[in-house]
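S1.2 Input.
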Amino acid sequence: MNFELSSEQKLIRETARNFAKNELLPGVIERDENKEFPKSQIAKMAEMGFLGMMVNPKYSGGGMDTVSYVLAMEEISKVDASCSVIMSVNNSLVCWGIEKYGSEAQKEKYLPKLAKGEIIGAFCLSEPEAGSDATSQKTTAIEKDDHYILNGTKNWITNGSTASIYLVIAQTDISKGHKGINAFIVEKNTEGVTVGPRENKLGIRSSDTTSIMFTDVKVPKKNRIGEDGFGFKFAMKTLEGGRIGIAAQALGIASGAYELSLNYAKERKAFGKEIFKHQAIAFKLADMATEIDCGRLLCIKAAWQKDNNLDYSQTSSMAKLYCAEKAMRITTEAVQIHGGYGFVKEYHVERLMRDAKITQIYEGTSEIQKIVISRSILK
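S1.3 Output.
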């Protein structure tokens, strides 16, 4: 067993770290405050290859392993979780879903543009009445001659108004239950697609979250992903990998808050000495460091299992559950270590605390992860 990263993986981590510091940190507070989509930052991320890291080079991707993706996600998330969720959705849901399960024609048409960041994608599963219960889809796709007619509403869609293509999960035969669900590639400029207003969110405020309405949208049959009835399995398998990305995001939020706290504790003085010399603060930092290392090992294990074609469903859920819960705890402690300064925007940790909360909710809540894990260990 080798715990050492390869020279390429170390280089990717260092590149992502420098990019986050030099390109994402400037203006991050203002973007959060104003709900400003990071358009120029995402364009630069695309130039650096961060939007199609794992895509095969024959489709203009980076051809990197999942471990490298996890390392980059952590570094980007330390500074700007809004940018990292855009990166995560495009990489591990949209690009991976199409490359793994799409037809060759679908791959050739969409993957090069997605991997190069010429367009970005969105994953449309959640509905007003179907969040955690993904089998209760109300969006329908009625089969016609050479197409489907799509009707319904999807909500909480990351990249909702900025994406050019949507991967949409819809019910085609309600009598078949989850086996009557399909997945479709829907282009945003198709007649009948309406994008709702951007949500005013607690965290990840500069990312683009909207509802999407589909009204009699004509979707060619060639845009269905996989065989008839494959949609539910497609969504679940894609989200299994997506959880590794969100676990890495939560890890990055936590480690970003820890690094800020560590530096602050070395500079801030109280009762005549730097506050890290007080055991109360030292022990908080010790707990943070331990929990972050545990989370990182879970993330890398899940990524390694995925890269080696092993079953990673349990580990990805464990990583997502653990890192999300610890991100919320660690960021709250970071605010506490900063005291009053932690409560103001200038010191970043309050934003990280707000950003941490969503990692317990999206791509499967912490409760859903416990269901997945318990079923796995008790089968």
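S1.4 Remarks. The domain at 239-378 is CATH 1.20.140.10 (Butyryl-CoA Dehydrogenase, subunit A; domain 3).
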